[in-house]
Amino acid sequence: MKMNIHTIKVLIEKELLDSIRNRWFYTFLAIFMVLSFSIIYMGIIKNTGLGFESFNKTTASLLNLILFLVPMITLLLGSTSISGEREHGTMNLMLSKPISAVEFIFGKYCGMATALILTITVGFGLMGMVVAFKVSIADAKSYLIFVMLSILLVLSFLSISMLISVLAKKRITAIIVSTIIWFFFILIYDLIVMAAANLFEGTSMAMFLLVSILLNPTDSVRTLAIVNLGGETIFGPSLVELTRMITNVSSEILLTGGIFAWIIIPLLLTVFFFKRSVLK
């Protein structure tokens, strides 16, 4: 179905303005700026005095926090977007206009994604510009990679949260399911994988680990961070060693493709279930 670009643009602008007017926008912007400032400041101090340590270690430290924080923020906000409008009755008003399911979902997704990306780029970008004058080009590139990985993490979990928002009929249900999803992907999943890895060895273990990483967007981002930013002391030597077993140029491309699959597939499922449950 052909999408109306003007309709999508209006929906994006509405969602973006609603986000900027919301208190959470400035709260999370402040959180990202504080995290950025505190971690980068610690990276300036050496044990023997003042100066920059490995900037890769600093960005890896910050990413380790982001892997916990960003999925939670994104899931809670995205999962209440459609379910919240359904409860307040605003969705029926919007759907009274000639808007297709694809336009509605894509517009809301892009609007929320723009708002979340804005908080990340502003929160991390300001500190990035400050330290850019004191680090090498390679370190500045590492910081840029870190920002891009954070954005990919936002986009993937936003797609998941949109799917939750369509399937959940009530806002509170969406919040509970989002919390469970976050708990599973961030805290439980790796424990299950590490336990199951003992059943494999050699090439079969490498294949198992690659598949398990692809099945979790957080692990995919973490693995790409290890490859591009280092971080043996941040992520743990055992995880780094396992990552080295499966990582090369082709697997990096595969992992990046896996993250994009987490962005696209849940979004397509969101459109499908939106048509069935809302536009039936």
Describe this protein with a few key phrases.
mainly alpha, two-stranded antiparallel ribbon
Q: Which sequence of strands runs across the widest sheet?
A: 1-2
In angstroms, what separates the terminal alpha carbons?
A: 17 Å
Q: Could you report the average pLDDT, rounded to the nearest whole number?
A: 78
Compressed to H and E, one letter per element, the order equals HHEEHHHHHHHHHH
Low-pLDDT runs:
46-53
Q: Tally the beta strands.
A: 2
As an assembly, this protein is: single chain
Shape: globular
Helix content: over 70%
By secondary-structure content and strand pairing, the structural class works out as: mainly alpha
- Note the main sheet: 2 strands, antiparallel
Radius of gyration: 20 Å
Count helical runs: 12
> How much β-strand is present in the residues?
under 5%
Explain the overall architecture:
There is one protein chain. The protein has 280 residues and is mainly alpha-helical. It contains twelve helices and two strands; from the N terminus they run ααββαααααααααα. The chain has a two-stranded antiparallel ribbon. A hairpin with a 2-residue loop joins strand 1 and strand 2. Helix 1 (5-21) packs across helix 5 (101-132) and helix 3 packs antiparallel against helix 9 (217-229). The two termini are 17 Å apart.
